[in-house]
Each structure stands twice: as structure tokens, then as C-alpha cells.
Fold this protein.
Amino acid sequence: MIKNFCCIVLSVLLLGSIAKAQKQDTLSITLENVKYPYPIKYFNIQTEDQDLRMAYMDVAPTVTPNGRTVMLFHGKNFGGYYWTSVIKALTNGGFRVVVPDQIGFGKSSKAFIHYSFHQMAAWNKQLLDTLGVQKASLLGHSMGGMLATRFALLFPDRTEKLLLENPIGLEDYKTFIPYVSTEQQYRTELKSNAESIKKYYQSSYFTVWKPEYDELVRIAAGVTFSADYPRWAKVAAMTFTMIYEQPVVDEFVNIRVPTILFIGKEDRTIVGKGLLSIDQQALYGQYKMLGKKTAAKIYGAKLIEFEGVGHIPHIENPTEFLIALMGGL
């Protein structure tokens, strides 16, 4: 009897410890329990009768400053945490590096507002104003490439160079992706889990999966366990609508700042990919062609391509990417 009781107690304790271990994988929707590589500061924003906080890192050069600043714009499924190697390379080269989490992403406020690349660009300009930065080079990855493009179009006098790493928006998604409302997309976002996220990353982002990429999935999937995940999902749907409804593809011809495109040629990213059939997916997201097509639209643009690399060159082939980036600056 006592033996059976002890076994029951032991089982309960074991199950409790397993549950606790699983609970540790739950992330807050502002990623409080995700460690960023450098200290986080906050820029206060007031919009639509809401007080918001925009998280950012402001990292000083580790060698003699060259007087130049690089601002990094993350992709839709990421935050400032995935720029570590890039920040280190830039600061070791004498650059000051500013790394914001855009409103709606990372450690920043998850606000129910009208999301706009124009508004985001204005907020980032205001952040630079506050930091006393008159001119910066912009490195935008994925969705960050759309934002960096909008910033360069709106504020060319504040843009030293436009650096686009596998930007999305090289196609006008609304011309071939079936329309879904924000509410419909919200219901889709609610279904996200570690398995579906990893499957998407494997099929679109990387050519060969490596164990270290699981950390990206852990962060992206961790928030799905949060009680506040519906808010995260709603914001994700709202920013999906922003990407769909606010293309930049027809405005590349208007860019008048020095521009470099860094393109992993095996990238197959399509925003709204799941809404297409397999046959339709084969027709779009062909970055080996989109990179060349886009570079031809931008006056004086330089194209640097990476063989055997997918959507995130700075993670999949950091050595080659960083050499190209530092050479481009």
C-alpha cells in the first residue's frame, strides 16, 4: 500500500516536472524571456490614442568609430535577435548599429492599429532623429526589405545606402495570391504550431536544415503557447494584410540612392504561399530570376548572388554574406 502510494506520488512529481519543462518553452508575445545579444531600449510612440513601445538595440562600434550608422530591419517572422553575427561584424568594422523591432514584432508593442510601411518608415526616422543620426545605411531582410525600400523612397536624404537581403515584395502578391480578409488570415495564424512553422521554414527559407535553425522555430512557436497568442495572431494577420495591400514592386524605378541586392538564389518565399496549389507555387518566388529583374529596375543597383543559399543568407552562409556586406559598405 505504502509502496503504491509512493509510486503514485513519484508519478505526479514526474508529470509535474515534465509539465514545468514544457511550460518553459512558452514565450510571452513581447519575448521578455528571449535573450537579445545586446541591451534593449525603448522608443515611445503615441498613435491612434495608444501609447506604444518600440524596442531597439543601439550598439556602439568596438573599434575606432568611422562615423557611419547602419540600421537593420528584420523580416516578418523574426526580430532583432537573429542579427547577432551581422551586428558583430559591423561594430567590429567601426559602424554604429541600430536594430529596431518594428511595432507589432519582437519585443515591441503588439498593437491593434492600421499597419502601414509609410508609418513604420516615419517611426524609424523619428528614432534616428532621437538618436542624433542624420544619415544611415539601411539593411532590410525579407519584409524589412519592403520597409527599407519605403524609407529610401520617402527619405532619400536620410538614406546613405539601401541594402536589400532577399526582400519580399519583388512581386505584386495581390495579382496572383487569392484575397483573404484579415479575419480569415487571423484564423489561419491561430492554427500555427511548431510543426507547421518548421515545415514552412524548411520548404521556403533554407536549402538544407541544420540543428541550429531549430532556435528560430523555438522562438516563433513559443508564443503559440501563450495565453495572449490570439493578440499576436491578430497582429500577424494585420501585417500580412499590409504586405498584401502595400506593394513596392512598381516603385523600384524611383529609388535614387546607392542600392545593393544580396540574393540567395534558392529562395522560394511567397507571401501567402499556402493559398496556392503546388503547380502555382512553382511559378512564383523564383529569386534566382527576381533578383536580376529587380536590380535592372533600380538605377545603378548592384546585384550580389549566393549560390546554394535560401531566404536568409546572413544565417545560412554568414561568412560569404558578411564579406559581401562589408565590401558593399
